[in-house]
Sequence to fold (308 residues):
Amino acid sequence: MSVKDQYNRPILSFRMSITNRCNLNCLYCHHDGMLPSKDEMTPLEIEKITKIAKDLGVRRVRLSGGEPLIRKDIVDIVDKISQIGFKDISITTNGTYLSKYSKDLKDAGLDRVNVSLDTLNKDRYKFLTKKDYLDSVKDGILKAVEVGLSPVKINMVMMKGINEDEVWDMFRFSRDNGLILQLIELMESENCEDNIFSQDYHLNISPIEEEIEKIADDVKVRKDMQNRRKYYIGKGEIEIVKPLDNTNFCSNCTRLRLTPRGQIKPCLLRNDNLIDIIGPLRNGASDEELKAIFLDGISKREPYNKEK
Ligand code: SAM
Fold:
């Protein structure tokens, strides 16, 4: 049985940011500051924390960052987590190291990957990430499919005047390579170089969703995934992720998060109620004490967007 928060939302998924180092410099990223690799959680610490999550009924684990594949011990981390026995282990990655690691990650027990790719245009990719890695990301995506990570999803953050004209190119690329396309609404990000919101890159993706809905053969709502809508068009699939001002997103949120500094983060959209768990763990806290820290984090969960 999964633990529920005071809003009756079960905690089914645990999303761990295992580093804040990254080899890209994305325009919209929150750039969480620098945490040297020596201070990052070790594979054993990650394993310990993840085991507590499992005991509390979490079924799915996702590794993120920063760029999780920048960690040289990423395969070991996945291997340790996969021994714990989750229903699903996934990674969100920028894809630049996927050619190198896909096979080993699959063998270590990784189920699937989400790859962030906002454009198929080299100049735009360079503008958005400050790097020229588009070809290696595409190679990495194909490698992930080839080794059997499934599904491979593409995370495309939609930005006004940058990539709004690429939805259908991205859809064809995804469909033709056996991928699922996720269109993500741009969120406000405090630490990015220019505030992307004030730069007016934010795009209301509802009109795009309406266009998709008109031609879709079928629609499904993913209940335990923040009520996301999933559209089927021929052999292709598009999911829509709209966290902002979305009461559905919050009322159906089943996720707990962990920051790279080892703090439980009760809500994606807040940073003012983090709870340190790595400090107590390093000071020898017992499993019961660590479980109490988790439960404290769960008790602090409240929907950011509430029904008005
Ligand atoms: N480095 C990995 C990657 O590129 O996927 C994992 C970390 S990245 C922060 C995780 C996801 O958050 C990516 O899909 C990225 O596009 C998305 N993301 C980052 N900043 C965002 C923002 N301001 N609005 C919406 N999505 C954002």
In short: The pocket of S-adenosylmethionine is lined by residues 22, 28-29, 64-65, 67, 92-94, 116, 155, 157, 184, 186-187, 189 (CB under 6 Å). The first strand starts at residue 13 and ends at 17. Residues 275 and 296 are 8 Å apart (CA to CA).
